[in-house]
Amino acid sequence: MKIKKILISPQEFKESLTGLEVANAIQEGINKADSKINTSLVPVADGGDGTLQTMVDVTGGEIITETVRDPLGRNIDSVWGKLGDDNSAVIEMAKASGLALLNENEKSATLTSTYGTGQLFKFALDQGI
User: Which residues contact 109 (CB under 8 A, 6 or more apart)?
Assistant: First the structure.
C-alpha cells in the first residue's frame, strides 16, 4: 500500500483557535483514523487577524506585551511578535491602531492616530531587531 501524505495548512478559527491549534487537532484526528498516514503541519495566514500568532508559532518565537497608545491616545496593552530567529519582528497594526479598539462614535480620521503602531516598532528596534 502506498504511504499517504497529507499537508495540513489551516488558518485560524476566528476568536477560538490559532492556525497551529487547528492543525494539531486535524493531525490528531488523522492519526486516530490511520497512524500510518504521514502529516505535515503548515499553518497559514493572509496578513489579517491571526498573522502575528501564526508567524510566531511556526518560527518558535514569542509574543511580547507592551503598553502603547490606542488611536485616541489612551494607554492599552498591545502585542508584537519576536520571531524564532531573534532577528525579525511581526507588528500587526490592528493590535495598536485598529478600528476594533474604538467605539463607533470614536471613529474619526481627524482625531485618531497610528502612534501606538510606531511605539511597537520602537520596542522591537530597542531589542535589536
Answer: none
